[in-house]
Design a protein that fits this description.
Blueprint lengths: L11 H5 L3 H23 L1 H7 L1 E2 L2 E2 L9 H23 L3 H23 L7 H20 L12
Antiparallel strand pairs: 1-2
Length: 154
């Protein structure tokens, strides 16, 4: 008898299947983690001065430069990104759901901070920041969405 909790439709083969939406969310999360994490950790002052570059310069508008906090932010992205890379090789619904919990928790808390601290930004920066951070939350949620089950042959 196994102590493993079973979800509806859960089987060993279902646990190894990864849905296309899950895979896309994972790859999107890895790309974001690589860009943001590398930039913030290895080039903290440039990250502070210019992130996200093409959409504006959001970080420097939100208070004085703090190398420690910028590098910690980069390290957190790199850690989530590295865990996500393992999801490319270790296909498991449990693994994807754990990654979904981590990315969604971070994404929601990050989103909540920024949507409550927009008054110092231009309207275009406010809109683009909310869209980008909302998209990041959706990527985390996307890790929870399991693949469709194939109909069983009769």
């Amino acid at each position: 008898m196994s102590n493993r909790a079973h979800l509806p439709g859960d089987s060993a083969s279902d646990d190894r299947r990864v849905g296309g939406f899950q895979l896309a969310a994972l790859i999107g999360s890895i790309v974001i983690a690589a860009v943001v994490g590398t930039w913030a950790y290895f080039f903290p002052e440039q990250f502070y001065d210019h992130f996200p570059a093409v959409l504006g310069e959001w970080i420097s508008q939100d208070g004085p430069y703090n190398e420690h906090l910028i590098r910690d932010h980069g390290a957190q992205y790199l850690a989530l990104g590295l865990a996500s890379v393992f999801g490319l090789f270790w296909h498991s619904q449990i693994g994807y759901r754990l990654l979904g919990i981590a990315w969604t928790t971070f994404g929601v808390l990050h989103f909540l901070y920024h949507v409550t601290h927009l008054s110092h930004m231009s309207v275009s920066d406010q809109i683009s920041q909310v869209i980008v951070l909302g998209f990041a939350v959706l990527l985390g949620v996307g890790l929870f969405i399991p693949p469709r089950r194939s109909p069983r042959p009769a």
